[in-house]
């Protein structure tokens, strides 16, 4: 029996209604996904820049090798903060603090010193190193500091690169940092307290002397001279050592910096190995370089954080990456106006 004309109209109407409902249902997940993607974006506490990372939120601090045989390194361009500090002799090491980005590979990882541990604690960071001085070993073994060390995890969490020789070839992936933290029962959910940042308007109206080129001479040997050059197009400083730009080993991605803070702190050699004791508590003179401009400042240690001050007021940072050079005296710092 053929359907009546009325039945055909009803059937067609029902089909259109079902099709419209299905289309609406298929669009709903897209809208929800878009909302979810918007919701996870937050301002990173250590850069003041929007970030997609929500977990782990805890900062991770890694001691990274800066011996010439360890260059170029992996992970430095993704660090929110980097401290550059003398170890033994004229060789500096880095403490790279990660929170807003998670590099795939980090290293070469080097051994702990007490001042690196203290600086990491300023951000309640999980501390990563491979090896330790006697003093730092006692501190790490006291249980007061959450840490993962290559001495206990060499060949498991830490891997040796075949293209470099020990002790310049120890690396750890961020996935293995997360695995090590999970295995050790470390809480990785608490983000560090935020730093203070300038607004775009404030950053664009900074006053001071022009300083497009900065040199920090840890030694007369150019191998251990850190140089910063302001790129006016990018509005950031690049960094170099021994005439070579500081870039990522894997892809030549350059380290780009928005703040370069240089502080003067008393250094003292304390053992026959040339290890140093560095006074990071007393405060002192400093320079801060931002947007191609230098300002004289003072620094204070606030709960383990090295922060710049001027006329008794805490100075704000330009949103982005920060590099902090700790030097025995400011006379080793020069800049061109």
Automatic annotation (TrEMBL):
InterPro entries: DUF3048_C, DUF3048_N, YerB-like_sf. SUPFAM superfamilies: YerB-like. Pfam families: DUF3048 (PF11258), DUF3048_C (PF17479). Residues 46-186, 214-324 form the DUF3048 domain. The keyword Lipoprotein applies. Keywords: Lipoprotein, Signal. Residues 1-20 form the signal peptide. It comes from the Bacteria. Residues 24-45 are annotated as: Disordered. Residues 24-39 have a biased composition (Basic and acidic residues). This is Lipoprotein YerB. It comes from Siminovitchia fordii.
């Amino acid at each position: 029996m053929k359907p009546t004309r009325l039945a055909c109209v009803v059937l067609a109407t029902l089909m259109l209604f079902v099709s419209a409902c299905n289309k609406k249902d298929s669009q709903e997940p897209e809208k929800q996904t878009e909302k979810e993607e918007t919701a996870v974006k937050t301002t990173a506490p250590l850069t003041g820049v929007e970030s997609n990372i929500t977990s782990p939120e805890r900062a991770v601090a890694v001691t990274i090798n800066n011996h010439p045989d360890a260059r170029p390194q992996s992970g430095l361009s993704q660090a929110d903060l980097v401290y550059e500090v003398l170890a033994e002799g004229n060789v500096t090491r880095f403490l790279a603090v990660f929170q807003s980005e998670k590099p795939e590979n980090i290293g070469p990882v080097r051994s702990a010193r007490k001042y690196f541990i203290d600086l990491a604690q300023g951000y309640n960071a999980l501390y990563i190193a491979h090896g330790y001085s006697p003093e730092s070993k006692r501190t790490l073994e006291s249980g007061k500091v959450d840490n993962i060390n290559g001495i206990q995890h060499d060949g498991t969490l830490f891997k040796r690169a075949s293209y470099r020789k020990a002790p310049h070839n120890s690396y750890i992936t961020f996935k293995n940092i997360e695995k090590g933290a999970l295995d050790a029962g470390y809480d990785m959910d608490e983000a560090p307290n935020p730093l203070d940042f300038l607004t775009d308007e404030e950053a664009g109206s900074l006053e001071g002397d022009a300083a497009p080129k900065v040199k920090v001479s840890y030694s007369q040997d150019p191998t251990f001279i850190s140089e910063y050059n302001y790129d006016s197009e990018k509005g950031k400083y690049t960094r170099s050592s021994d005439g070579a730009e500081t870039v990522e080993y894997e892809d030549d991605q350059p380290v780009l910096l928005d703040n370069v803070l240089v502080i003067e702190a008393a250094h003292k050699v304390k053992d026959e190995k040339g290890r140093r004791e560095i006074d990071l508590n007393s405060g002192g003179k400093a320079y801060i370089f931002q947007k191609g401009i230098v300002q004289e400042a003072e620094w204070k240690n606030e709960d383990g954080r090295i922060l710049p001050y001027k006329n008794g007021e805490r100075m704000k940072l330009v949103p982005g990456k920060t590099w902090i050079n700790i030097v025995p005296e400011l006379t080793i710092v020069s800049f061109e106006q």
